[in-house]
Amino acid sequence: MSLDASAEPLPTALEGQPIERVVRDGVEYVVLGTAHVSRASVDAVRELLVRESFDAVAVELCPSRAQGMRDPDALKKMDLFQVIRQGKAGMVAASLVLSTFQKRLADQFGIEPGAEMKAAMDGAEQRGVPVWLVDREVGTTLKRAWRSVGFWQRFGLMGGLFASVFEREAIEEKEIEKLKQGDMLESAFSEFASQSEPLYRSLIAERDAYMAARLREEAGRAGYSGEPRRVLVVIGAGHLKGLSEQLRTQEGDPGAEATELAKLPAPSKWPKWIAIGLVLLVFAAIAVAFHRNAALGAQALRDWVMYTAGFSALGAVVAGGHPLSVFAAAVAGPIKPFRPGVPSGAISAMTEAWVRKPRVADFETLRDDIGHWTGWWKNRVARTLLNFLLVCVGTIAGEYTAGIHIFKSLF
Predict the structure, then answer these.
(1) Most CB atoms within 10 A, among 70, 90, 148, 353?
(2) Residue 190 — left, alpha, or beta (φ > 0 → left; ψ -120 to 50 → alpha)?
(3) How far apart are CA 13 and CA 17, in angstroms?
(4) Which helix (H) or strand (E) holds 356?
(5) pLDDT tens-digit map of 182-198
(6) Tell me: the pLDDT tens digits for 133-147?
(7) H or E stretch covering 291
(8) Cα–Cα distance for residue pair 167/164, rounded to 1 Å
(9) Burial of 254 (0-12, 13-18, 19+ CB in 10 A)
């Protein structure tokens, strides 16, 4: 049976813990806000499960994150070739960086990352009640965040993400508790998230609405009506206020709401058209050069090949790529305009993964290795992802540099 929190003094484990109680459609949601690397949060989850009875336990996890938490060997099963081929290398790298940020904080205080979520799932299973995974897929959230900001803001986004991992200054435990006022994703992007309304909306507000819709959807699916039912909801405290408000006020079909928020917005077309336009302009300039005289045209063509191949290869070299990966980057760079949708980094990275196949040990130590900048070159999985990113950047730099030189030769 449940205990009314106001009927007796709160136990020590629940003192000061952010808890909201929301009744909606005959269901009482007991929403506990947690810090994802806090012993106090783990104790609070366990205490609530002992102190009160629940018909279900909902956690701020998506299926892929829950699988990774339940299966320590999940990373070993990752098909690196498929990740690269499907264009997911950048998102996988970002997800790994986020998990490393969380692990760095957790290691400092000797607590497993997401231990409070695991405690909630374990407690539910021990009591024979269902576990609801109500968060949006992390890959979807990152893609929506990426597409919500402008071209130049994306550099700040990546900078904030990597800075959160490589910052070596120890963090005091009282600062960890202050994460109760924020969210792990938002914290990883530091002040950049608070200054970008579109980014905040993707990382926080949309997920508040999504999780509220999923809770309502699961409650409806379970047929909770008539007799009041009770659900424990364990979420990061940065979502406590927003989720509670959404639970109270959200209208409409919850399934349709969740489906809409899980969609990937169409990428903005103007950056693509600008890039295509610039490349076409460069090739038009090469054609003009050939029209003037063959020698000038040949020089323009050499500039294109030299700079795109050179900068692409440089990206592979900086990433510590195998000579064959460097060669693949040099070949892929100049012909990128003729292979729309296939990044030059993908060609080089797949070559790297083929020549230097990741070992089991590389997957086992991946999260630890990428927490140090040298680990990106030491670990074969991380180095392959780095190869993809740097070759793509190198190719873009080569295209712009070649274009500048070609136009200079015409005027």
Answers:
(1) 353
(2) left
(3) 8
(4) none
(5) 455 555 554 555 566 77
(6) 999 998 888 888 877
(7) helix 269-292
(8) 6
(9) buried
Q: Is 182 helix (H, G, I), strand (E, B) or coil?
A: coil
Which residues does 408 contact at the CB level (< 8 Å), separation at least 6? none
Amino acid identity for residue 265 in this structure: P
Residue in 395, 371, 386, 400 with CA at minimum distance from that of residue 168: 371
Q: From residue 54, how far is each of 208, 214, 234, 248 by CA, in Å?
A: 22, 18, 12, 20
| C-alpha to C-alpha distance for 116 and 104, rounded to whole angstroms | 16
Joined tokens for residue 323 = 């000579």
Residue the block writes with tokens 């099963």: 77
For residue 173, give the H/E element and its range.
helix 173-177
**Element (H or E) spanning 107, and its range?**
helix 89-108
pLDDT at position 6, please?
A: 46
User: What gap in Å lies between CA 167 and CA 22, rounded to an integer?
Assistant: 39
Q: Mean pLDDT throughout 145-167? A: 67
Closest by CA to 147, choosing from 265, 299, 321, is 265
* Token digits of residue 395: 């190719």
- Burial-class residue 96 by CB neighbours within 10 Å (0-12, 13-18, 19+): buried
CA gap 90, 13 in Å, rounded? 40
Count other Cβ atoms within 10 Å, centred on residue 353: 24
- Is the Cβ–Cβ distance between 59 and 121 less than 8 Å? yes
pTM to 2 decimal places: 0.73
| Residue 200 pLDDT | 79
Kindly report, residue by residue over 26-58, the tens digit of the pLDDT.
899 999 988 766 788 889 999 999 989 999 999
